[in-house]
Design goal:
This protein is α+β, with helices and mostly antiparallel strands. The protein folds into four domains: 88 residues, Uridine Diphospho-n-acetylenolpyruvylglucosamine Reductase, domain 2; 119 residues, 2-Layer Sandwich (Uridine Diphospho-n-acetylenolpyruvylglucosamine Reductase, domain 3), CATH 3.30.465; 106 residues, Alpha-Beta Plaits; 82 residues, Alpha-Beta Plaits (2-Layer Sandwich), CATH 3.30.70.2740. The chain is built from 16 helices and 18 strands. A seven-stranded antiparallel beta sheet has the order 15-12-14-13-17-18-16, sandwiched between helices. A five-stranded antiparallel beta sheet has the order 5-6-10-8-9. Strand 5 and strand 6 form a beta hairpin. Helix 9 runs antiparallel to helix 11. The longest helix is centred in the C-terminal third of the chain and has 21 residues. The structure holds flavin-adenine dinucleotide (FAD). Flavin-adenine dinucleotide (FAD) binds next to strand 3, helix 5, strand 10 and helix 12.
């Protein structure tokens, strides 16, 4: 077993200084994602320019026995790109070229370091649409989106990143280059191995190129409606989605909105305080608009606003897009779960009651992607005990996680709808998944990364 300094010396012999950074500032910056769960800093940060660089690094890792953490925009919320044992971080940020665009088949071929929002803007310029969108699109990268199978606000209509991917190029944990780059919508020639890398959180391979399918740009309008009960909000939404094309359906509570308004210079678009807000994007047609007016008349929300231009649209979405950042202080627990939308009301009522029984100091801050039942389930401590009473915090975290797991089992839900497992939920996965399924997952890891050089400690 070589020491870290011996490994660095070996790497410095192979790679020039501009590709391999070892200064403390850089190593600390690239050692964590939004969770800040890293327990060590990176030994070095490697910035490849091409596939050959990535292959060379992975082969060296196998030979010398060091580990690698693949890193995208580090916007992850599960600790997937955090370092835990002085690994070498490989950042794809210099591989940020859009390689080719086929405007007949609407397929774009990109390097993995392209920022998600840059691809959205590129699609816009070409008069088409890239539907994967979420609040961190301005920093996340396509490789990170593939590795986490990122979702976002349009999943209910267009699916997750997986549904947009028509090709990948990957360097496996053994350093082999796998090219699934035909860009085909249909390809049933044997096992579709590329699917295994989507959502694998950098544990099976490093994604270096991505081929994605653009879609026709939809004409859509945004509607924000406030309701006095969650049940009424759901009734309105279920009725709406049965009648018109809905591209996005998000919800948040007055508690989440208050946190955003107190932290950022954002105004409430509804003006009145509404216990529950529903934000939808629906098709911009005369029939759909008439239908929405009819439903507003029928369900009588406290207040409704429709955005007809881009600036109104932006202000309607401002609260929703800033909730994650607004909740970071006094946050006790962050979960990203899914249950079927039809079961959400019962599920959340029972979770709120569990929480009240634990402590009066705890507040449920729920919001998220109602359309596909993906709820960001956050627990906030209202009093400032986060820093002072560690014993209380640990006890509560354990109890809340235990209660949540029981409820998710009861309602056949998922412990991770879109943020993955990373470091954060390894315990939950072990408890939530059967031994048989976990066994096959571990065997897959052995197939693509037999020496375990990629992203140690993540997922399992
Ligand atoms: C405010 C906010 C809102 C968010 N909203 C959503 C949302 O609505 N939906 C959603 O799905 N996510 C959301 N996220 C989470 C996050 O943005 C996504 O998971 C995103 O896809 C991560 O991309 P990244 O490039 O930042 O990856 P990173 O955070 O850098 O990495 C994530 C994982 O992917 C691996 N990885 C990164 N690049 C590669 C690569 N090239 N090859 C192999 N593995 C790689 C890492 O090792 C890690 O395991 C949100 C995050 C924030 C901060």
């Amino acid at each position: 077993m070589q020491t870290t300094s011996e490994i660095l010396t070996a790497l410095q012999k192979v790679f020039p200084q501009e590709k391999l950074k070892t200064d403390v500032e850089c190593c600390v910056r690239y050692s964590s994602d939004r969770t800040e769960l890293s327990s060590t800093s990176a030994a070095a940060v490697f910035f490849p320019d091409n596939n050959e660089d990535v292959i060379a690094l992975v082969k060296l890792a196998n030979e010398l026995g060091f580990c690698i953490v693949p890193s995208g925009g580090r916007t992850g919320l599960s600790g997937g790109s955090c370092t835990v044992q002085h690994e070498v971080v490989v950042s794809l940020e210099r591989m940020n070229r859009i390689i080719a665009y086929d405007d007949v088949d609407n397929v774009v071929h990109c390097q993995a370091g392209v920022i998600t929002q840059n691809l959205q803007q590129y699609a816009e310029q070409k008069g088409v649409f890239y539907p994967v969108d979420f609040a961190s699109s301005g920093s996340s990268q396509l490789g990170g989106n593939v590795a986490t199978n990122a979702g976002g606000v349009h999943v209910m209509h267009y699916g997750m990143t997986r549904q947009q991917v028509v090709g990948l190029v990957v360097v496996t944990g053994e350093g082999k280059l796998l090219k699934f780059d035909k860009g085909l919508r249909k390809n049933n020639a044997g096992y579709d191995l590329k699917q295994l890398f989507i959502g694998s959180e950098g544990t099976l391979g490093i994604v270096t190129e991505v081929l994605l399918q653009f879609v026709k740009k939809p004409a859509k309008l945004s509607l924000l409606s406030g309701f006095d009960s969650f049940e009424k909000l759901l009734e309105f939404y279920f009725d709406l989605r049965g009648r018109v094309n809905v591209y996005a359906a998000e919800f948040y509570t007055a508690f989440c909105e208050a946190k955003v308004l107190s932290r950022f210079e954002i105004k409430s678009p509804l003006v009145k305080k509404c216990p529950f807000s529903l934000l939808v994007e629906f098709e911009d047609t005369e029939i759909a608009t008439a239908m929405v007016s009819e439903l507003i008349e029928k369900y009588q929300p406290i207040k409704s606003v429709v955005a007809v231009n881009q600036s109104q649209q932006k202000s309607l979405w401002a609260v929703r897009e800033n909730i994650s950042d607004a909740l970071t202080t006094q946050l006790l627990l962050k979960n990203d779960i899914a249950v079927r939308p039809s079961l959400l009301s019962r599920f959340l009522t029972e979770c709120a009651s569990d929480l009240r029984n634990l402590s009066a100091d705890l507040q449920l801050a729920v919001f998220g992607h109602l359309g596909d039942g993906n709820i960001h389930f956050n627990v906030v401590v209202e009093k400032n005990v986060v820093r002072t009473d560690q014993k209380f915090i640990e006890k509560m975290k354990k109890a809340i996680a235990g209660n949540l797991l029981v409820k998710l089992e009861k309602y056949h839900g998922s412990i991770s709808a879109e943020h993955g497992i990373g470091l954060l939920k390894t315990d939950l996965l072990a408890k939530n998944e059967s031994e048989e399924i976990l066994g096959y997952m571990k065997q897959l890891k052995m197939v693509f990364d037999p020496k375990g050089v990629l992203n140690p400690g993540k997922v399992f």
